């Protein structure tokens, strides 16, 4: 940090000065050719290559299926290249650039190695069918037929009346063919929707949509591979599929406390107020952070603000960890709410979103606090915490179980699953640390996440050792102990990732465009009402045309 800032030790640089310094350093490195900004579509080429390969059917082409190893190698090479050479003047985007580089590798491993989407995956899809109702006025009978089936039915009934050669206006099948006169009858056409399980499609447009949904989908609602934490589709969907709804589908809340919305009005009442509250809470947290240089420089020797200086070292560390945790929780919650607000409420099922615009497609993000009370640290990370990346975390273990390398019920499998899940999570966050401008410690996030696995197995071992005493302990005491253990372990190890976030300047990002508190002067003279003065799109011209594009 001293190489960037040489101010008096009693006078820390302001957040604006720090942002300006990082911006200048980034621009200098771009000029030198050692860094490049995050460019669209360049930084998406790995995902595009994955999509192109999956869009070519290989279920009946063994050689093409084996070529996935070549595709995977190319994607890994490109993603690692972008990891070490991409950053941004925007501190949030610089973190996302590295995380996305690693995510591209892990999701490619998932779909090319650990899972076989063209063979096994299918999703619930909705298609429109035209229902034709023939109403006989003389005897008030109604006959229904779908598609071309109405033609043979109407012909049969017309021949009975002996008037097939007469013409009648508006009596046509769904394919536009005239079906002749309907004596004393009228035809009503009603467009209805039908649900079905869509496997890998034959048509190119449908295939592109299917693959795009597969790659950008995290939790898999409506897919055969949906993660187990989210609720199943509602019974109404199973009815339209022609399948019986099991007991789990009849409940709006999953076993980990994630809630399903059955109507758009339900989602609106729950998520819009939450988004508004999150906006103002972000303003509060950000304003508090901007009064402590730790949150834009990381651990440093500058003079602390009075309210922080009076704290003991332990209380100060806990205060900063808890504030960092609040920033992470609220930021993620607001970001994850954008999908249902836009996909369901703004666009909706009547738009191009189709089924992806229905309310049940957007269950809540976080599990119930009761999962922590019942399962401790394992419940915190396996149920209460967001499960956005659960598929890529669990796919290696599921692959080993499916291919009988591991026994699903063995303790060894649980150990392997924890190592994969927390190891991948640590590497993802390390990627974000690598791509930031200031000096960070990319090994700290993997340390933090692997220590969570250690904490889980430590608690499991203690519970097994003390099982005779635990089973006789009142349930409220057991639950309180689980909560205390989970939070204590998190705070004991949380400084590793909190310090790295602060070193990288992650809290210099501006989550909201207008700040009421900073506009009123609660964060110092360098802050005002408008927070997005540096946000915008630009154009980057690379050495080759394929390296050029929009910068974020």
UniProtKB/TrEMBL annotation:
Its main location: membrane. Residues 372-450 form the Wax synthase domain. One of its GO terms (biological process) is lipid metabolic process. Keywords: Membrane, Transferase, Transmembrane, Transmembrane helix. InterPro entries: Wax_synthase (IPR044851), Wax_synthase_dom (IPR032805). PANTHER family: LONG-CHAIN-ALCOHOL O-FATTY-ACYLTRANSFERASE 3-RELATED (PTHR31595), WAX SYNTHASE DOMAIN-CONTAINING PROTEIN (PTHR31595:SF67). This is Wax synthase domain-containing protein.
